[in-house]
Amino acid sequence: MVGFFDSGIGGRCVLDAFLRICPDEPTVYLADTEHCPYGNRPSEEVVRLSRRMVERLIARGCEVVVVACNTATAAAIDTLRSEWPSIPFVGMEPAVKPAAISSKTGVVGVLATRGTFGGRLYRTTSARVSGGVRFIECVADEFVSFVERGETSGIRVEAAVRKRLEPLLDAGADRIVLGCTHFPHLRPVMEKVAAGRAEIVDPSDAVARRIRDVLQEVRSCASK
Ligand code: DGL
Asked: pTM above the 0.85 mark?
């Protein structure tokens, strides 16, 4: 069984991507809506909250845990791996590398939370791939609130998306990286706003394939 958690319903996009390729796999999804959002919380607090989610998933019998939250991955995945060495963890990371490689303008917009931008994972990856590519970082916390309210389309959402995306597009960004698992829920609106100017880069499918591979590894080790 595969366990997923996020601060809220955002990480469902990763669960949905996984179920598209492994429809028969049993899964559990936990949303920590009581403490959502995680984005501006101190990293020690995100570690503490993530630990509680993992305890609950393991108690339910999960053999693989997906940290379906970029903020929790940034703050907690190293700690979780060291505290549960026998559990494989799959985390989220903004897809800056594929975006940088495919960008023609050399300008990439990245949407994420403050916590994700402050994390070592994002800092080291973006520094490593940045040769010649400019990353423009944008915190869009209000997108998280829209998604948690179930408001993923309409005039208010489109205005909010325009407000965040237009400055990135005007600066020449031709790739917009979704570095928060809540944001793919607004993807149709983003695609409308960015049409003809930028592609939206969503790592959900790549992470889903990684989960499937990890699960196969776990099972093949167990059967040896
Ligand atoms: N879904 C979380 C992420 O991927 C962020 C939402 C929040 O701030 O809690 O970073």
From this structure: yes
